[in-house]
Amino acid sequence: MFRPQSQTRFWLLALVAFALALWLLKPVLLPFVAGMIIAYFLNPVVNILWRHKIPRWLGTFIVLLAFAIGVALIVTLIFPLLQSQIGALIDAIPGYIGKIRAHYMPWMESWLARFAPEDVEKLRGAAGESVTQAAGWAAKLVQQIVSGGFALIDILALSIIMPIVAFYMLRDWPRLVGVIDTLLPRRHYQAIQEQLNEIDNTLSGFIRGQALVCLALGLIYSIGLTLVGLDYGAAIGITAGVLSFIPYVGTIFGWVTSVLLAFVQFDDWTHIGMVAGVFIIGNILESYILTPRLVGSRVGLHPVWILFALLAGAKLMGFTGVLIAVPTAAILGVLTRFAMSQYKSSSFYKDPLAPTKP
Predict the structure, then answer these.
(1) H/E/C letters for each residue in 5-21?
(2) CA distances from 6 to 1, 11, 257 (A)
(3) Which of 223, 206, 175 is nearest to 305 (CA)?
(4) 62 and 55 in contact (C-beta within 8 Å)?
């Protein structure tokens, strides 16, 4: 029999071995991780078909086929729009820069005239250095994500392996869950099951709910900016909706980009205020309707924790790290809350020598 100290050493060694295996195999993990995430996302739909007497393999095939058709339709409809609008925006940037200089440079020069010449040079140098550093950091991060995700596995291999992994994971999901269940230590079976259920609730609540929130925000932003009359509003709105999966990033990107374009495009404050109002309304809907209803208040994943997990995952494992960042954050969050509850019920937290209150 394992002693408590032996059990602790065993689980620590197993955790270290698992982390080491992830690190060593990270160049080939991307299609498998992506396939498992798709399987986890679609498993409830397959379960519904299974409960209606549809064979598991057939339900898996139907759901994956519908998912692939849906993704293909979205890419077919949205990608040309994004490509045309982003290309047009890039072509229009020189004209926008000239317009900014014509409208705002006189005001800027009159404001800078209040300072001494050496202070103005310092401000210009500091601003240029900050912009250069920010652009270099963003480019480096994107390069790390892309190179870490696609250095050894190209798009063709991803498109072939990922559906196969997703199919077998979905088809054999009950069998896999049963095998894992038989391997759980019987002594702590109830506690482990409770934590696994909590992890599943957290993951399903966040991933599936946040995906719907991103879809809703993309529609709200793109339709709202288009109705206001902002050029390239559809591309900005869709991009902001997708980036909303990362806390704060989608709203900040969309708001800053749209307002800057509005200042260049419109000469009146009414349209500029309407552009800002689209994101204010979107943020209100997200905070008070979309997130509470679609994600829920019991997910327990703080936005700062998610942001840290995504950045750390991108830094350590590239795009694969981004994919497993949220599940890892959810698992660590649940385990941390469980550890804190155990600590508060232990003698380390409660002083047995302290006098009890009458």
Answers:
(1) HHHHHHHHHHHHHHHHH
(2) 9, 9, 56
(3) 206
(4) no
CA–CA dist 34, 341 (Å, integer)? 33
pLDDT at residue 10 tops 70: yes
Q: What's the rounded Cα separation, in Å, for the pair 339 and 349?
A: 12
Name the nearest CA neighbour of 303 among 268, 282, 333: 333
Q: Say whether pTM exceeds 0.90.
A: no
**Token digits for 187?**
């002594």
Closest CA to 173 of 59, 43, 33, 42: 43
Q: What is the pLDDT of residues 206-221, one digit of tens each?
A: 777 888 888 899 899 9
* 145 contacts: CB under 8 Å, gap ≥ 6: 314, 318, 319, 322
Residue 161: strand, helix, or coil: helix
Specify the higher pLDDT residue, 53 or 131.
53
**Amino acid in the structure at residue 262:** A
More confident residue, 15 or 105: 15
**Encoded amino acid at 245, one letter:** F
Comparing 141 with 269, which gets the higher pLDDT? 269
Report d(CA 334, CA 343) in Å as an integer: 14
Comparing 100 with 249, the larger pLDDT belongs to: 249
Q: What is the DSSP letter of 244?
A: T
Using an 8 Å Cβ cutoff, are 299 and 310 in contact?
A: no
Closest CA to 48 of 68, 63, 64, 66: 63
Q: Compute the distance between CA of residue 261 and CA of residue 96 in angstroms, rounded to an integer.
A: 8
User: What is the 3-state secondary structure of 292-319?
Assistant: HHHHCCCCCCCHHHHHHHHHHHHHHHHH
Residue-level pLDDT at 46 = 92
Closest by alpha carbon to 220, among 275, 277, 278, 288?
278
46 CB-near residues (< 8 Å, 6+ apart): 56, 59, 60, 63, 170, 173
Instruction: Report helix, strand or coil for 21.
Output: helix
C-alpha count within 13 angstroms, C-beta hemisphere, residue 192: 10
29/321 Cα distance (integer angstroms): 10
